[in-house]
Amino acid sequence: xxxxxEWMNISDLMSGLMMIFLFIAIAFMLExxxxxxxxxxxxxxxxxxxxxxxxxxxxxxxxxxxxRTSQQSLNLDLxxxxxxxxxxxxxxxxxxxxxxxxxxxxxxxxxxxxxxxxFQEILRDFFPRYIAVLTSEKYIxxxxxxxxxxxxxxxxxxxxxxxxxxxNNMKLSQNRANSxxxxxxxxxxxxxxxxxxxxxxxxxGMSFSKLIYQKNGQPDAIKSRRVEFKVLTNAxxxxxxxxxxxx
Length: 247
What we know:
Elements: H1 2-82, H2 86-89, E1 91-93, E2 99-101, H3 104-107, H4 117-134, E3 143-151, H5 162-185, H6 194-200, E4 201-205, H7 221-224, E5 226-233, H8 235-246
Parallel strand pairs: 3-4
Antiparallel strand pairs: 1-2, 2-5, 3-5
Helix pairs in contact: 1-4, 1-8
């Protein structure tokens, strides 16, 4: 009987161990299945993210190509419109479509923000034609801002501190930009849509933050005193919207 009891206990023990092993096996199988499902879900998420990223890259590339093509086209149109006048105006058109007036003796009196008679004459000819190009069907929906910028040299009188020189030139450059904007806004011409212009036209004083330098690395005081017309497009805004969709 004792032997039978021992065999009974061993049999119960083995049965218990078998149950434990069974539970362990089931638990392991469930865990493995869960991990496999998570891996499949992770793979799906990774594929979805990769597809979304590819779509975003394609969109940004398309915008970049469109922007470059538009910039090149605008540069050609501006050059064709003004190339015969640039020399007499003391102006140039840069590769990034800045129309730069860089003859300081033509623009303003030294230390003054009043637009000279000669520069007024130039602006009456230039500005309506400039706006006509920008508001053509090719560009009007791409224009975010038209900015007139006043730039100065980093000079002032010798008794002025560096701190005051910057602030004095900032005030002067802002006043000059405002004067040019005011004069252009007041020009009466059929090519100028004032409601559209009010939404786009801005004046910025730059002080001497963007000096023009000579080949020897020294600031060019004469060329740094200038007025620039700059066009900002909405390409950057489009990229921001794409990025926001990813968040």
